[in-house]
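Sample entry (267 residues):
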Amino acid sequence: MQAININNLVMHVHDTGPKSGRALMFSNSLGTDLRIWDRLVALLPSDLRIIRYDMRGHGLSQAPEPPYHMGDLVSDASGLIDHFGLSDVVFVGLSIGGLVAQGLAAERPDVMRGMVLADTAAKIGTEDMWAQRIAETKRCGIAGMSDAVMARWFSPKFRQERPPELDMWRAMLTRTPQAGYVGCCEAIAHTDLWESTARLTLPTLVVVGREDGATPPDLVRETAGLIDGADFQIIARAGHLPCIEQPQVMADLLMGFLRTHNLIQAT
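Predicted structure, serialized as tokens:
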């Protein structure tokens, strides 16, 4: 666990694995923190360098007062990459983390070798939708919206069969600072990466849970279609967080992608 000052913001970062290994950087979704990747990274080879961080306003990273802009979030990721002196990152972003990945790929092609977009799109929702979410957050608090969020995050089977675990993920959501949640909602609301994402050419894997209630498969497929050569995969029996519901499937897809594009040595 490290506390790293980026853009006058203290960010919580985990950096594990050999410094000489291929660097994979993971960016979390709205209302979560770097622990959502625990099950996935446990299945990856030990010779990879795994860098996970809590997005600003989430987890143990600082939560400045809103507004936030997507440029801030992209700059945070870029600053971390520069802090570690990396030049060949494979960036894995989930939901808002996937927006960060797309923005970073457009702005910093010098440091990106590939990206994995999970349950995300070039544009997510409308400004009106996010304005309503922000208003509801301020009126009811994050806890007051947690049932609806759990329904978007997880498949019905998961919610029915694993209630104790569901409560754990709900606690992660409700402990997110309201300033961070609202700030990131504002950043998503004003982000449209359609044109810049359509110009990307780097190796890209796009995945989505079949039962995703936040970024449905058709929306994610549309974004995959913008990127020349992108591989699009639907993960069965998963909602918005396939790294939690189906970590082995996601790990297999990730490793297949890395080997196909010679981003790691084939074994």
